[in-house]
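B., you asked whether I could sanity-check this one before it goes into the benchmark set. Here's the sequence:
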Amino acid sequence: MTTRPNLTEQEILTDFISQEKQLVHYYASDVTESSCPNLRQLLIRHLTECSEDQYNVFEEMKRKQFYKPKDAPDYDVQTAKQTMQQLRQSTGI
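And here's what the prediction gave me:
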C-alpha cells in the first residue's frame, strides 16, 4: 500500500505554478537555442501552452486568495511601457 502526503489545495497549486514557471523558463531558453524551424515551432507552442497553464493557476490561486499580488503603481506601469517601446524602436522588433 502506498501512502500519499496530505497536501493542501494551496500547496498543490503553489507547487503546480512553480513547475509551470520553470517549464516556461526552459522552453523560452530552448526556443532561443533552436535552429530547426519545426522544432522551434513545437517549442513555441509548448511555451505558449505552459504560459497559459501558469496564468490559469495564477488566476485560480488569486480567486481563492492563496496568491495576493499587489497592483503595480501607475508610474511603474508607464515606465515599463516606455522602456519596452524604446526597446522595440531600437531593435526593430
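One thing to flag: Helices lie at 9-33, 37-63, 74-91. Otherwise nothing jumped out at me.
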